[in-house]
Amino acid sequence: xxxxxxxxxxxxxxxxxxxxxxxxxxxxxxxxxxxxxxxxxxxxxxxxxxxxxxxxxxxxxxxxxxxxxxxxxxxxxxxxxxxxxxxxxxxxxxxxxxxxxxxxxxxxxxxxxxxxxxxxxxxxxxxxxxxxxxxxxxxxxxxxxxxxxxxxxxxxxxxxxxxxxxxxxxxxxxxxxxxxxxxxxxxxxxxxxxxxxxxxxxxxxxxxxxxxxxxxxxxxxxxxxxxxxxxxxxxxxxxxxxxxxxxxxxxxxxxx
Length: 256
Prior knowledge:
It is a single chain. This protein is of the alpha/beta class. It has a single domain, classed as 3-Layer(aba) Sandwich (Rossmann fold), CATH 3.40.50.1110. The protein has helices spanning 2-13, 17-20, 48-65, 77-80, 103-108, 127-131, 136-153, 177-181, 185-202, 210-213, 233-251, and strands at residues 70-75, 92-97, 120-124, 158-162, 205-207. Helix 7 runs parallel beside helix 9 (185-202).
């Protein structure tokens, strides 16, 4: 039902959303490292540990300032590159994405933001595991451990697990195209089904973004991607619309 609502919402809002959305409130980091945005500049050259240090410092700022309606994005480059101006407004966003991140890496760094008090945490992870040849069993077990850790560390927080997005299939132009083509989108759909079952069993929310991004062949829609793996502005517009509607339908309803 939610997926249908999101599809309708996308059709009705996609052409006007960019003209109506206002910049979301973000954690003030005037004296701290700049927020992660699509214009990463020198950050392209950072190694993994340098990324960890930056995210740790940004989480520290959020913990000290305790902004209202703090919402955390957890994941890989898809989350990292989310344009700040497209993030749903009326929330303070803390982006904890790292390019190339895997479920194993994410699991090991969840403690970075232990001291924060997020209202909601959105998690998307898994595509880089598949690219690196990690088994479904390990991916799903890591996802389970991530969920359980977040539930324990943030018992008052709404945890939302997001589906793994499809890739562009034969139309992919990403530099490591062959590794991506070795992963069937059918496998991704199967993983998402298992991930949804885990989320339901653990009592957390599951946001199925897959239908919003898949074409009739279940590949990533080309008009939403730069290279068959990463998203363009229209892709982030679809994701943003889904987050906005999901927050309204699922999360706000629980507070009434």
